[in-house]
Amino acid sequence: MPERVQKIIIENSDIIIKNWLEIVSEKRQNDYTSSISEELFQSTNREFVNMIFASLEQQGLTKDLEEFSERLVNLGWPLSYLTDGLQTFRRVVIDFVLGQTDKIDTDYFSVILDRVDSWVDPIINKLVNEYSGNWEHTVSLQRVALQELSAPLIPVMRNITIMPLIGTIDTERAKLIMENLLEGVIKHNAEVVLMDITGVPVVDTMVAHHIIQAAEAVRLIGSNCILVGIRPEIAQTIVNLGIDLGKFPTKSSLRKGFETALELTNRKIIRQKDSASAIEEMIESLDKE
After folding, report:
1. Which one is the CATH code of 154-264: 3.30.450.20, 3.40.190.10, 1.10.3720.10, 3.30.750.24?
2. Looking at residue 106, what is its pLDDT?
3. pTM for the full model?
4. 176 burial type by CB count under 10 A (0-12 exposed, 13-18 middle, 19+ buried)
5. Which of 87, 138, 236, 249 is most exposed by smallest CB count within 10 Å?
6. What would the mean pLDDT of 104-132 be, rounded to a whole number?
């Protein structure tokens, strides 16, 4: 950037910043930043514009730009905040520099435009690349977390585990269910797995096929799979589609399935009498003595 132009920009940075903040604040009323607190919005804007001027004074991009971009990703600010802000900054700077001279010809305008672009464009490219990289990393971590939650295997008692399924089951998720089932059965030494489909809205041929495959895989490694949570409408759909679920037990509720799991592991629920009845029986036995 020509020394004269750079000197004008730096010496009048307060005015340029003021003009930029006013324009950005006016746009805020109808955009994505309207829900952000005024204090956070203003402090972020000032940090942003100060880093832009720092890159001009240091003749290059700074480390602070990378850290600033990463913080915006973590706070959930959209990429358009950066790009819109820099485009607005470009216009403000060009308008201010051109306003400092009485004569404006095509060559002078072209020089100013090229010089400002050579300053602002690298900042835009750097921030977009950093933001995209940080965003992809964040999305990747979220995807892993969602995968872990989409097919959890929960050990509830020795040799008994439950896999609650919620939402639709596609091919990718079915593969994850299969992997988690097999790994979990081995890890928890499970003899019985309760697959609860209460939260699955639709069971069609494909979903039933995936469930049958998973149950068959569990059987092959020496465990039993019980399908629970079959609602009346789901049962009717399965019958109408001609799907055969006769190879493994099915129960209408998790409670009934758990009772069956206890029986398969040689256990059962013993219902104890309430304390009042126990006391009465004790008194009666004492009276007989």
Report:
1. 3.30.750.24
2. 67
3. 0.47
4. middle
5. 236
6. 75
